[in-house]
Amino acid sequence: MSVSNQQIGIGLIGVGRHGRRYLDHLRTDVPGAGVVAVCRKRTGLPATGALAGLSLYADYRELIADPLVQAVVVVTAPALCPEICLAAAAAGKPILIEKPLANSGAEARAMVAAAERAGVLLMTAQTMRFDATVLSAKAQLPAIGRLRLVDLVNHVDSAASIASRSSGTAVPGALLEIGVHLLDLVRFFTGEEVAQVECRLDRPDGAVEAAARAVLHTADGAVCSIDAARVDTGRIGTMQWEGTEGTVTADWVRRTVTCRIGGGRPRQWTVEPAPTIVAVLRAFLYAIRTNTQPPVSGVDGCRAVELADACYRSAALGGTAVSVQEFP
Question: Fewer beta carbons under 10 A from the terminal one: N or C of the chain?
Answer without folding.
Answer: N
